[in-house]
Amino acid sequence: MTMDYTLREWVEMAGIQPLSQAALKAQMEESGSTEEEVNARMRFMLECMREAVQDGMQENLRSVSGMTGGQASKLYRRYANGHAFCGGLLGKATAYALATAESNACMGKIVAAPTAGACGVLPGAILACMEERNISEQRAVNALLTAAAVGISIATEAGIAGAEGGCQEECGAAAAMTAAALVELEDGTAGECAEAAAFAIMNLMGLVCDPVGGLVEVPCVYRNVGAVSIAFSAADMVLSGIHCPIDPDEVILAMKEVGDALPGSLRETGEGGCAGCPSVCSKQKV
């Protein structure tokens, strides 16, 4: 069997159970793994995420190009000093998201969630929730399973490659996965997880992929910060009782349609958008 399910199918499989339980069962059936083995794998992913944040928080961290590194520590310091507009949980999540993305840009080990370019969004949110809201490791693992189910649907119905459909398919997908994971952490239903994912995609639809010099650094690492913020707001909308007016699967298909319409210069070629700005053209390395 394969797990190429739409969001509607995931919701139907979950029924009255959390979306994470449908994802767990599907993974067990596909891989032949036990529940303990699947959970152990997710705990390993969680620990890799934690290590990436720690790595990315180093003040002296720099990428080979010199364009990124050492920025997350600045953002975290502003949050820690109580000066950040995005205080509390969101403030920590944005700093963690940037740290993970910078760790990736500096050749650190990360978990592609769903891609390297968007690797900071899900870890930033989940790890911050664990610390700020005393979320247990098992609940975090369940949230990762929910995120995985949403990611599978997006990859199946649209795609998760910036070169194919723009950064909406990377940071957009990551924000959708994270929004659903956050709803899971608040004991939301499978349907609410799907709606949160749709809201997140709506708010990032059309986002182009325009890496300076063709490197996964600028503006990539900073988009992780914006995407995690959108994930939180999408989850909050659903949890407050706001329903998504468009079918979640239709939102994914709309994202694919938009991605297909993007010109080649805005699909990871490093030619248009931010990559074409005069102030950075001289820094580009191909």
Structural class assignment: mainly alpha
Helix content: 55-70%
Mean pLDDT: 96
Tell me the major beta sheet. Answer: none
Please provide the ordered H/E string of secondary-structure elements: HHHHHHHHHHHHH
List the helices and strands and how they pair.
Layout: H1 7-14, H2 19-31, H3 35-56, H4 72-80, H5 88-105, H6 121-132, H7 137-157, H8 162-165, H9 171-185, H10 190-204, H11 220-239, H12 248-261, H13 278-281
Helix pairs in contact: 1-2, 2-7, 3-5, 3-7, 4-5, 5-6, 5-11, 6-7, 6-9, 6-11, 7-9, 9-10, 9-11, 10-11, 10-12
Describe what you observe in this structure.
The protein is 61% helix and 0% strand. It contains 13 helices and no strands. The protein is an all-alpha fold.
Tag the structure with descriptive keywords.
286 residues, globular
Summary?
This protein is mainly alpha-helical and 286 residues long.
